[in-house]
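Preliminary data (for renewal application), alpha-D-glucopyranose complex.
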Amino acid sequence: MSKALFVVSECAPLVKTGGLADVAGALPAALAAEGIETRVLLPGYRVVMGQIGKTQTVATYDDLFGGKAKLRACKVAGLDLLILDAPHLYDRDGAIYGDATGRDWPDNAERFAALCKVGADIAAGGVKDWTPDIVHGHDWQAGLTPEYMRSAGCTTPFVFTVHNIAFHGNTTAEKLGTLGLDPARFTAENFEFWGQISALKAGLVGAAKITTVSQTYAEELLTPEFGIGMDGVLRARQSDLSGIVNGIDLDIWNPATDPNIKTYKTATGKAANKKALRKTFGLGTADGPLCVLVSRLTEQKGIDLLLEALPALLDRGGQLALLGSGDPKLEVALLEAADAHANLSVKIGYDEALSHRMMAGGDAILVPSRFEPCGLTQLYGLRYGTLPLVALTGGLADTVINASPAALARGVATGVQFFPINAHALANAFARLCGLYADKPLWKSMQRNAMKQPVGWETSATAYAHLYQDLIGAHS
Ligand code: ADP
Ligand code: GLC
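Predicted structure:
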């Protein structure tokens, strides 16, 4: 078995703010089936330390950016974890990336540099009896790993996955010394980015291979519109960049066994869940589709477009139940809109169990994102027979088959896509959705198509395994 080390800042079910955690939590089991043994290096946030129980200390650090630290090995939920227990960095009130008011922690550079440094130490043989053949870092929080591997003289191949290019992990050049980075590499060819240290760029430059979470996003990333300043760096590395679409955990997201819902094997079983969901959200009955949306509330997710286009759904007898949290301005706007419309109900918060009930009870799942590297909720929707209405971008373009006349004629459609990504096109998409929903035999056939889609990890885990094996082969 080959050995892979994940360096990652969140991992379900222990700690999650978004899809990154789902990927880190589900991919290791899928890789195991491919002959890859994965250990996940994760910060020992307070919320994580509270869940790990008995551990074995496998390394100690006298001074890791200002305090003592231990590396603790343990197993939780089938995951082989290496938890970086560094109280001065991770044991605090508030969220994992920032304080309770939503402001980033001022020492985030050190907090995630520490994770990378320990990742490099493990790669260089710092843990007895377990040295990885491949190191796989995820997003900017893991970006400095290849810099520290380089300083340690470690040539183990490093794979870097971009889950979202919007976050660069930039920090001031004054921290070069504090972070123990090589000043000679603070150049435009390496990790300097407009006068700052960019952890993201360090990952992009230092990786043997770069992946992102869908093929369309891999192409989009090369354009100024989607590359958000990194498109030039990525174009220079184009031959090493590929897209591997995310899967979902088919055990956790299984309508036939999901403990949160009234289980079902065919879409007819959704009716009881729909009734229960309407009750939960205080919605009455209606003729149009019951749409659901579960999301972080940020600019990325197109919530403002949704608010503008919503009359096109509500005026046709449609409904929307929305669960999300994030930008306070969007939260207020949504709550105000819900006050004004009987068929719009909004819950602000984060609720994993409710998100399952929404997938089971909804007719359609909305993902009107401006950009979406992969997106997971449309995949849950497919599996639960909840047809996705999505923007034509990133992973949303790759995982949904638009109900075009051609796709309908071939009987393969699974959802509705809209383009360009603006409120007008979204409003038109609502009209199309309501038209499809009104044609019951057609809607049912689309639900059947949706529920048959291969949304698990198998194919993508094979792709990662091949990528690893090629690099391991070339390295040894
Ligand atoms: P992103 O990672 O950009 O947030 P994804 O669609 O990849 O987008 O993943 C989001 C994940 O977080 C999904 O598992 C989704 O169900 C979950 N999620 C987002 N917001 C909430 C919420 N308010 N309550 C429960 N789950 C949520
Ligand atoms: C990011 C992206 C999302 C993707 C997730 C997991 O948060 O915004 O599209 O599904 O990472 O890769």
